[in-house]
Amino acid sequence: MTQSIPSGRGHHMLGFVARHAIGIAMAIMFLAPIVFLLLTSFMTSDQTLTANMWPQSWHPENYVEAFRKTPLLRFIGNTFLYAILATGFMLLASVPAAYALAKLRWRGRNATMVLIICMMMLPPQVTTVPLYMMWANTGLTGTLWPLILPMLAGDAFSIFLLRQFLVTIPDEYLDAARIDGCGEWRTLLRVILPMARPGIAAAAMFQFFYAWNDYYGPFLYTSENQDAWTISLGLASFRSLHHVEWHLVSAATLLTMVPVIVLFFFAQKAFVQGVTLTGVKG
Amino acid sequence: MPTAASQGGAGRVRRSLVTLTFIGPALIGILIFLVYPLVAAVYFSFTRFDMFNPPVWVGLDFWEYVLFDDPTVRIAAKNTLVFVLLMVPARTVGALLTAMLLNAMKRSRSIYRTLYYLPALAPPVTATIAFVLLLKPGTGPVNTLLAQFGLEGPGWFNDPDWAKASLTLLALWGVGDLMIIFVAALLDVPQALYEAASLDGAGRWHRFRYVTLPTISPVLLFATITGVIGTFNYFTQAAVAGSVASGQVTSGSGIAGTFGYPENSTLTYPMRLYSIGFGNNLFGAANVMAVILFVVSMTATIILLRRFKTFSGGDS
Amino acid sequence: MQRLLNRRTTMMVGIAAALAVVTACTPTEAPKPIATSGVEPTGAVELWHFFTDREAKALDETLAKFKAKYPKVTLTVKGGQDDAKVTTAIGAGTGPDMAISYSTDIVGKFCAAGAWVDLNPYLQRDGVDLNAIPQVARSYTEFRGKRCTMPFLADAYGFYFNKGMFAEAGLTEAPKTLAELSEMAKKLTKRSADGTIERAGFLPLFGFYENSPSHFAPMVGAKWLNDDGTSAIGSDPAWKELLTWQKELVDWYGYDKLEKFRASLGDEWSADNAFHKGKVAMAVDGEWRMAFLKDQAPNVEFGVAPLPVNKAERAGAGYISGNVIGVSRTARNPEAAWALIKFLTTETDSIVDLSNGIRNVPTTTAALTSPRLTADPAFKVFLDIFANPNSGTTPPSAIGPGYQETFSEFLQGWQSGTQKDLSAGLADVDVRVNKMIKLAG
């Protein structure tokens, strides 16, 4: 993209090499701790956390052991359910809200925006108590619903993110749709959704990955009911008061990262499509 | 279907109703997940509450205690402010630069993107442990590597003068989430604008300053505000890093025992809030701290919203 | 404007109060009077505990015996819980009938708030002799006259030393006094040519591994709290004695050199533990360290002993802490829950089974001396520490471990040398702790 200025071929090569040199150096830094986990996952329990970071002997059976010790498959199923429902509900409520905040004119709009940002400000350490008491009254503690149902009201982080993406869409597109006789909902579905795909994809991914890795939420609401456990709770069962089986924790962590990495790799296409659309129209 | 242009009382009511279908669920969310816990926090800040018996009204006792009598609160507040000043700019600039580098790549783009995003995908506790052990002075590979070049590595998480910088490095390492947002935002900048600017003879910096920045400024605002709020609530990584660096990767009881290691340099405001409220059973004091944090976050947010309005020229 | 503000404030407070009544009030029934004698325990009981894996299995085996003995009690057990979760759930009215906690930190709060019921009436009715439990374990399970928990196994902390290094230096026995400890520590320390510490005889920094003021206090018999619940840290001269001794040893090494050395040591809970690796010759640690040493460092020849002390008459002391078990006031079938507590904490056979399975110290005199108890001579040292009247613990308080945390904060400044005035510093700790205790009510 920055290459749109005419430049000599040598200059081009130089830029290519420089970019990839920086790119690879950064990749190594970003990867180092992941490699550390990978190495740890093949160690004996006794070697973990020691200064010797290269496995003295290799134990791929740790991966089998991690599955044997806890019903990880069941936990993966629960986690998928939690992540998919939370993400779906979040989008259902947040996209329209973000649209109203970005593109509709109504009284109290700015104040509402500030209030939504305010929802991120109370430290979870104190909100936990009144909210848990509320859910205890509904009898839904012991399940993942107290984490999923709130998404029907949207998620502050996502609404704010989506709103910031939607304001960058020029009003002319909306006006054109409105003149064509589209109601606001139709305008949102037909015009905005396709154009805001990168932002929506980003918000959906964040929500999905957040739910996937969430530990405190599921622990608070489901620790007493193993049938509802998510992977992050399963990982915690490799630890006891004085001892953590880091080799199993590492193996299980990497295993549970695989689905989300694959998902991310393919979800990236959403960004590319987003750009061609705006590119054509803009 | 009447067009949006239709005027008159009925049209206005109808339009308000339509707007309500868009924003209604979020308004209910504000009531349940903001107003209710906020009112509860304000109320609890004036009471002694043991979570088992009805709260007892004690007036300003806990406010006095938090504001004047607990020197640890002041240390924690100062640390958190320093973290905001270090981490928010570092993460925002880091994410933007990385995103620009990524967008400059061609075919290899999606591989790099995935690699850079990996740390943000790892569970925070495990990721923090791995990161701290790599930087451990004496045994970690980073200082061993530096020693091969004849350099003596710093004490990183074990040195009170380096601990904050080390946590900032950790935050930069997990910059992938913000980077993705910038990648998406940068792709939204209309190509035509760049071409027009180039024809006008604008250099790289000018194109960045007068084309890229204004276009992505709403996303920049988002990154700054969520960064500030997130750093005000910075807890997990600081708690885990302290326990790993102190030589006790704690697994069960008493995580508060290693809070702030070394020498309280990594004790953040929410960590003090937690230990005071749940370790020391002064739930009222924790709520005072929460209300103060809320007010400070809101003030910072409003200032930022105003600043950005002047910066991006009126919109928002 | 003024009036408007007032009306608004009143309204807000009103809303808040209404909310609080809705949310904060869990069923606050008055404690039911207990049955006068021998009712048969029946009904459902749910128990939450923190054990996982091997330890949870050992507990399950003992619980199976309870089920066989009391077939009319239906027992549900849930492991892997933590104290914060148990507290939140009991507060919201969805908690378990009974729970085992890993720390005595919650005893003060749970007893004072009545979250767990006072067991005294049951103990008296069934004629349970509390003298069967050593005084120290009795003290950390009750608060302000309410015995809302019973001790469920315990940890004892003593002194470890490396026999190989002792032989090298011509030493044979563990240090008995603090003066001896300093002397041996200096003798066993090795430095490189540039003064860097290569091996520490004893690493005296607070905050290192298990070095905490609570674990060191029994060395001098230092007192934490007065009988009226206020802080005794500033007024008990024993603390000054301990800190002066500790600072002398820190300064002999040099604080900066010690911190640098400490940063180079492996993690406490790994095979790189400094004692395993011969980086320190002596250390204060819990009885569980023996199992780790056998497993991860079988070549290290070590000895165990009680803590070194300041006066000969205090010999045999160590630090004691334990798990506690209690019955929630919302328990559906308190008699059944009490039967389980009695079974787990007063019957010698079950205590011995649990100790053998989980490898912690049993908590009654009869169990300590039971021939069925698996105890090699080293483990026996810790059993003796547990039974020794000089051993100490950290007393329950309304602010949990708040008094220890405030003190530890001062100690950071003390050992690094930024805090020089010991008396003033300790007096300040008293003021801060007393303020917190007063606020906690």
Description:
The complex is a heterotrimer of chains A (282), B (316) and C (441). Chain A has 282 residues and is mainly α. Chain A has helices at 9-41, 61-69, 72-103, 109-118, 124-138, 145-148, 156-166, 171-179, 184-195, 197-213, 216-222, 231-236, 246-267, 269-281, and strands at 239-240, 243-244. A two-stranded antiparallel sheet of chain A has the order 1-2. In chain B, helix 4 (109-121) packs antiparallel against helix 8 (176-187), helix 8 (176-187) runs antiparallel to helix 10 (204-232) and helix 10 runs antiparallel to helix 13. Chain B is flat. Chain C folds into two domains: 34-155 and 320-387, Periplasmic binding protein-like II (D-Maltodextrin-Binding Protein, domain 2, 3-Layer(aba) Sandwich), CATH 3.40.190; 156-319 and 399-440, Periplasmic binding protein-like II (D-Maltodextrin-Binding Protein, domain 2). In chain C, helix 2 runs antiparallel to helix 14, helix 13 (334-346) packs across helix 14 and helix 17 (402-416) packs antiparallel against helix 18 (422-440). Chains in contact: A-B, A-C, B-C. At the A-B interface, helix 1, helix 3, helix 4, helix 5 and helix 7 of A face helix 1, helix 3, helix 4, helix 5 and helix 8 of B.
What layout of secondary structure does this protein have?
The complex is a heterotrimer of chains A (282), B (316) and C (441).
Chain A: H1 9-41, H2 61-69, H3 72-103, H4 109-118, H5 124-138, H6 145-148, H7 156-166, H8 171-179, H9 184-195, H10 197-213, H11 216-222, H12 231-236, E1 239-240, E2 243-244, H13 246-267, H14 269-281
Helix pairs in contact in A: 1-13, 2-13, 3-7, 3-10, 4-7, 7-10, 8-9, 10-14
Chain B: H1 9-44, E1 47-48, E2 56-57, H2 61-69, H3 71-104, H4 109-121, H5 124-134, H6 141-148, H7 163-173, H8 176-187, H9 191-199, H10 204-232, H11 236-245, H12 269-279, H13 283-312
Antiparallel strand pairs in B: 1-2
Helix pairs in contact in B: 1-13, 2-13, 3-7, 3-8, 3-10, 3-12, 4-8, 5-11, 8-10, 9-10, 10-13, 12-13
Chain C: H1 2-24, E1 43-48, H2 53-69, E2 73-78, H3 83-92, E3 98-101, H4 107-113, H5 120-125, H6 135-139, E4 150-162, H7 163-168, H8 178-188, E5 190-191, E6 197-202, H9 213-216, H10 237-253, H11 255-263, E7 280-286, H12 289-296, E8 302-305, E9 319-327, H13 334-346, H14 348-358, H15 365-368, H16 377-387, H17 402-416, H18 422-440
Parallel strand pairs in C: 1-2, 1-3, 6-7
Antiparallel strand pairs in C: 3-9, 4-7, 4-8, 4-9, 5-6
Helix pairs in contact in C: 2-14, 13-14, 17-18
